[in-house]
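Quick one: structure for this chain?
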Amino acid sequence: MGRVESQPLALLSLGDIAASLPGSTAIFRRHKLDFCCDGSESLERAAQKRGLDLAPIAAELARLAPEQNPIPDSVEELISHILERYHQVHRRELPELRNLAIRVEKVHAEHPAAPKGLSDLLARMHGELESHMQKEEQVLFPLMLVGGNPMIVHPIGMMRHEHDSHSEELRVLAALTNDMTLPDSACNSWRALYAGVAKLAEDLTEHIHIENNILFPRFEA
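Got it. Here's what it folds into:
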């Protein structure tokens, strides 16, 4: 995301923002900003052409960039961090990634590098992650917040097993996208899709690491 971080958003092209800031394409669609055909236009110019107020759009986009905060130490703060940094982000970004995958698979169906089956995989991951996160939010995390009990090792074991399944799906994700390698002819939607998929893979890997190696061991005697 270097280009997004180093320049004012207003001066960046819609295409660069879409390819660098996962989640931005949903904002563009909501404001009817065409990041595909008009991808070379700056955000400022595109907003002007549509008679839109630039400031709130730029503010929405700026909120997508994750804060680089250190991992907190206390159980309460660590769980809050997981909920805000990972659970909320997965829920926000996965539906938009699936929408992008459907578009790319349809428009580029004849391209040999098209990620055929990616939208189905993302839909499956979304459903499995939602189920997993609800178990943590409704069962495991409340137990942890009251200090745990000897039986807590059982839901932790289930979460570890599901983490293994998530990791396997990340390997399938990498295979379907050739490790997120774009063809030279990739359009802005394809670029945005692979940027978002790469971020999902990074976020989910870090999410699993924090739970498996930092949070869970505190309750596994």
